[in-house]
Structure formats: C-alpha cells, structure tokens
Amino acid sequence: MTRSSGSGGKVWWAELLPWEFKQRLAECPVAYLPLGLCEPHGQIAALGLDTIKAEWLCEQAARQAGGIVAPTMGYHIHESGYHARWLEDTVGEHNPHMTGMPPHVYLHFFLYQLRALVHAGFKAIFVISGHSGGNQFDLRRAAAAFTRLSSVPVYVASDPELVTGQYEGDHAGKYEISQLMYLRPELVDLARDHLHDIDEAGGALAIGDNAREASAELGEHIMQACLRQLIQEVERVPLGQDKPARSMMTYEMIEGLWQQLWQERADWVTSQPHEDQLPVTPGSQWKQAERALHQLFGSGER
Length: 302
Ligand SMILES: [Zn+2]
Hints:
Elements: H1 18-27, E1 30-35, H2 49-65, E2 68-69, E3 76-77, H3 82-90, E4 100-101, H4 103-120, E5 124-129, H5 135-150, E6 154-158, H6 159-162, H7 174-183, H8 216-236, H9 251-263, H10 292-297
Parallel strand pairs: 1-2, 1-5, 3-4, 5-6
The structure holds zinc ion.
C-alpha cells in the first residue's frame, strides 16, 4: 500500500473535491477523526485546547503518513460520573462555557460516525481524542465492538497515551498549556492570570497547579513525540485484512451494536464517579450528572 501525501497538500475531507478524495483514499484508505470539546483551561487559555491539539495531530499525521482527516467532533463526554465532582472542585458554580455531552448520547453517535467513515470507503480509522481522563476507555469499548462487526480496525488514543512513559498528561497544567503555547501561542494569555482570583470573572476555571511552568519549547517536544507515535501506529495498521471489510452497515447493525454497549453501561468509565471521589455537594450545579445512568436509566449504584 502506497501512502503518499498527494492531492495538492489538502488533507481535510471537507476541503477535498470528489476526485481528490478518491485519489487520496486510493493512495491510503485511512481516516483520522479528531475529538475535542470546549471546556475551561483556566483564565489564560482558549476553551478549545483539546480540540486544537487533536486536529493538529490528525492533520500532521495525514500529511506525513497519508489518509484523510474527517470533520472534527467538537463535543465530548463531560459532566457525568467522575467529571461531576471534578467540576465542582475546579469550576464550582461558575459557568464553564463547555460543550459536554452525556456518555449514552455520545457513544451512540460515535458508532454512527464510524459507520459513516466505513461507508465513505476507509479501511482503517484513527480516533484521536484531545480530551482524556477516562472517556478513551469507553470509546475503545465501542470501537472494539464496531471492529468485530465491520472488520475495519479502529484505533483510539488520547494524546497523553501516545507519549506514555515520556510525558504525563494533565488538565490545563504544564503539559497542556505547553501544547497550546506551541500550537497556537496567540491563544494563551498569561496576563489574564489575575482573573483566577476574581469570582465575577469565573474564578480559577480548572487551571492546573503547574501551568506557570509551561513553555512552547516543551509543547513542541510533547506534540512532536505524540505525532511520531501516531505515525508509527498508522504505518503498523494492516489495511489488507484477511476478512474483507464490510462496505455497507445498516442502521439495524449499528442499533444491534448499541444494544450490546448499552447492556454494559454499568461498566462505562464515564458513567460513574471514581470510587475514591467525594460525592458532589447537594445543591451544586453538578449534582444531577454525578450518577448519570442511575438517574436517567435506573441502573444500580455502585
Ligand atoms: Zn484539555
């Protein structure tokens, strides 16, 4: 399989003409799906940090290893389960200006996203999530079920997982703020640091303790290491499967997968608080999302 960059340097599905899409697909039938969201990263950084790094990794990988970048998913699992107490602790009762979704809505949609990619002709899918902390396990559960049915390999990783053992991921700390300083320096404004202490401005908004140690140089090392690992994974994926991939997946097939996932909902990482977390304070805006599945669907509490 030749994996060339071809097609006038364009790698985004949304920018390709049909013949260019067909050409890139024939050269390398790999799709990248960037996942991110808007959520607070302190007063000093843009809300879309997670989205921006996922898009960059997908775009760079497509340029270097071939393939096409699918439209970004800018909403992600948040608020529910373990997120709830974390939000109470780091955001409190302020408005996080966040694009969070509950897991059951997100995972159901995710299966249909994968279906759309297979229907478009892709033979391997790389899902890169800039938002991490647990959702990637649920995405992998859904992806594995999808692969069993479709024979299309789906690789899911959050960016810190790409650099395990080299760098430790965080939330809006030295790791993440460095990433944004490298990718989009104009979207970091350290002069807004003083707003952390001002309630009317929204407070600390989930800033990490060591954010002040961030640097563009560290961000470059982190992002380039993530990219190297992603490209290695792309080069490793078998595109000539033993079993031919399904080219048509019906709604019925996806709904069957969804029923199977739904049966496993008590095991979803994003649906429950961590065992060592304190409960959310009654009256907090985050209380309703603490035990999402228990409240919405009557599954048992742990
Ligand atoms: Zn982040």
